[in-house]
Every structure is written in C-alpha cells, then in structure tokens.
Amino acid sequence: MPWLPSTLLALSGDSRQPIEIVSDRAEFDDNSASAHYIGNVVVTQGSLRIEADDLLLISDKGSVTEVKASGTPARFHQQLDGQEPLMMEGEATSISYHAKSRQLELKGTAKLRQGERFFYGERIEYQLEKRLMRAFGGSEAKGEGKRVRLILPPPKDEATP
C-alpha cells in the first residue's frame, strides 16, 4: 500500500519500510475504502512518525489518496533527503495530506519546522512538488495567532568552525 512518506521528500528508503499503526481502536470500511484509527494513534514508517488522537486513511484502488490526522495537537516528524540531515516537523489541531495535489495542510495553531526554519500560523499549506509554503493568520485566532510568523537562521559563516 503506497503511503504518505514516500511523497513527502522523505528519505528515499522510507517508502520501502514496513508501516506500523498502533491505536486504542480501529474501524475498517470496505465500502468507503477507509480506515479510521481512534485513540493514542502512532504511525511509524522509516523516519516518519505521526502522533494523533484520530487518524483517517482514505484509499482508491489500493492507494492512499488522503490522510487526515487530528489531535491536541496532532504531530509528525520525518527525516528529509538532502546533502545534510534535515528534519521536517509539524503540529496542528488537524493535519491533512492530499495525494493527488501533493499538498500537506496544517490547520489550527499550525507550526512547521524544516531544519532551523520555523513557520507559524493558523493554517499552513505546503505544496510538495513546487516546494511552496503558504501560511495564513486567520481572522478568528486570538493574540499572536492572528499573524503569520517566520523565523530564519542567520547565514552560516564558512570561516567559523
């Protein structure tokens, strides 16, 4: 069964690793081609780890088309391919992945970290093919949540060890 991590710019070997899903309860619906995991959900595959209160997988012809995780908050982290080891971590009330559009969406006090770069907003969208990130503040959020925040590290001084 194809899975979320192989499409997330993850370590190239992650998609060949076994998937383990642990939860308090699970429901499978062949009519809607969905699997619903409820309570203390933990998904692991290679370097990917997802933690959520609730996880819904929707499939079409044996391939996962949509993943929806929710929690207080739902979290994920995964090692990315590249010249340097780089982790992508995110958390939000709701995390969705849409396979057809290759888009990751974090909603509700969303946080996304790639290496030393941090993104905060009420909603964050990440288009994987284009490597395009959009953050939205949301008019209904309170305090700092109304605004988008980005933290970038200073440039590395190559002369400094």
Question: How do the helices and strands line up, and which of them pair or pack?
Answer:
Elements: E1 20-22, E2 25-29, E3 34-45, E4 48-60, E5 63-80, E6 86-98, E7 103-114, E8 117-127, E9 132-136, E10 149-151
Antiparallel strand pairs: 1-3, 2-3, 3-4, 4-5, 5-6, 6-7, 7-8, 8-9, 8-10
Walkthrough of the structure:
With 161 residues, the chain is mainly beta. It has a single domain (4-151), classed as lipopolysaccharide transport protein A fold (Sandwich), CATH 2.60.450. It is 0% helix and 59% strand. The protein contains no helices and ten strands. A hairpin with a 4-residue loop joins strand 6 and strand 7.
Poorly predicted residue ranges: 1-9
Which range does the strand content fall in?
A: over 45%
Q: What is the CATH homologous superfamily assignment?
A: Lipopolysaccharide (LPS) transport protein A like domain
Mean pLDDT equals 83
